[in-house]
Amino acid sequence: MYRVIHQLNERNFDRAITKSEAAVLDYLEDHFRKIPDETVIKIAQESYTSQATINRTAKLLGFKGFSEMKYAIKEDVDLLNSETHSHIRNTEYILSKIDFNSADCLIKELYKNRHKLLLFGLGASNVSAQYMARQLLYLGIPAIVVSELQMLKQFKDYTILILSSSGETQRCLQIMHDAKKVNIKVLSITKENSTIMLGSECAFHHDVPIDKMEGISREQQLHMILMINEVINKLKWKYFSNH
Q: The whole model's pTM is what?
């Protein structure tokens, strides 16, 4: 498992970080693959900080000092350079960030409302919504993918499943708001503790951070596709198979 790279993405620390520590973290993230070949003096100069700040940042990341952190970064880089190993480990990481138990409530609601079901997603999540609609159709559940707010007026008493990786996209929030105004029940596949999750009757949620570094997450919808497949497989097993 990566020892440094995910910490740089998530930055969930036990205390608030200083501006100088943030500058070091930014430098480490932006130049991650080069760090094993750089000295603490160079990093201090390039990040406009001090060697003391770099050592303090290393301790913030859980290491005794710069040398130990640099060695851990080298191990991470070696993993990244092994493409197959990198993708396997990244997939394992993403799987660990999905709360699979939270799918159960969503699956029950999808089956209960299978005759009046809408799907909504934007951008890459719209592609995921189209994929889910096709998979549901294989089970005999005709879900309608909606793309505009005006469409909701034609589907009163329906249930809508909002697919939103961040759970904070403005148009998704507007869809949720407008759906509730016309008595459309809101379900979601989204990020943990997001506005969409908190406004949903049932939410299958994840805690996958937004990856900004090349090689960590080549496809930002990977976790969404994994979650959709989990829903489809459980629906099939629970309601559509002879077991």
A: 0.65
